[in-house]
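Hello support,

Our group uses your service weekly, and this is the first time we've seen a run hang past the timeout. The protein is NADPH-dependent oxidoreductase 2-alkenal reductase. I'm not sure whether the cause is the sequence or the server load. Input pasted verbatim:
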Amino acid sequence: MEVTNRYVVIKHNIDGAPLESDFELRTEALSLWIEPGKYDVIVKNLYLSVDPYQLNRMKSPGCFQQDMNFAGAISPGQKINGDGIGRVVASGSPEFKEGDLVSWNCMSWGEYSIIKMSPSKMEGAKLRKIEMMEFPLSYHVALLSLSGITAYAGFFEVCKPKKGEKLFVSGASGSVGSLVGQYAKLFGCYVVGCAGSQRKVDLLKEKLGFDEAFNYKEETDLKSALKRYFPDGIDIYFDNVGGEMLEAAIENMNPFGRVAVCGAISEYTDKGRRGAPNMVNVVYKRITIQGFLAADHYKKVYKDFLSTTLEHLYGGRLHVLEDISHGVESIPSAFAGLFRGDNVGKKMVELLADD
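Update from on-call engineer: The timeout came from a worker crash unrelated to the input. Re-ran successfully.
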């Protein structure tokens, strides 16, 4: 059987803010037949994750890409991959059968994904069946996948919180920030978040339970703003944006404060924009600044992450924010919108309804 597969590629390297016109929708004929002796799995994609870090893979080649072994550089015309879930439509692997719902960290930005597998070395080693069917499928792209693990590991493993400490989280209405703030509140911290609109600020306080939140676009002096919200200083800063916000947070940190650097979206689209925190403060206040990836902590925290998260979900204490576009043709606008601040919560694309 042969199907038509539509997928998205970049036309050229993207070194500034992405535009819809930077992408191209292509079409190919795809056979759903697995050659005998092959262990490949073909998946019909159902939900695809859209994440800001992907822009760093699309830029002109640079030394930083050499360190991104989990997500290497993307060349123009090359298929783009990322987190997603789908249904197996053909399988040569004894581990997966037609009809299985699966999640994987390298689903193509298209309607189908081909996962190369072999008995000795499986590219699909991280392909896993979705067992928990009591939740919406989309949860397996966000809360129960990379965004949730990143938030949990970053907060508990990198920040090493103590009850009663004061946490500031930037990009607080995004896929990771919204979860960090909730984990912190449920743990017993005082939480303040920032976002880019009054609607998002209201959501943080009224739905997610943040103690305070503010619109950073309305602040002319970020250092003074943080001093206003943290008169006794910040113990933990969970950084999703970098730039001037990182500088302002460092200025307001308490001695032995911890900074978990999860992302730097304000710097992704501007080569000249770099956070330059006061390093004298870092030294004399003995501040720890640590970048991290979820993969660093996955094996250690996954069991606790799942147990804690499910307990809060079942108890109605954890709220999931999702921002869903529809159809493969919406991927470019969904991605570009991340850098305009369009999304609220986890941005993903739902493809054609599962047959």
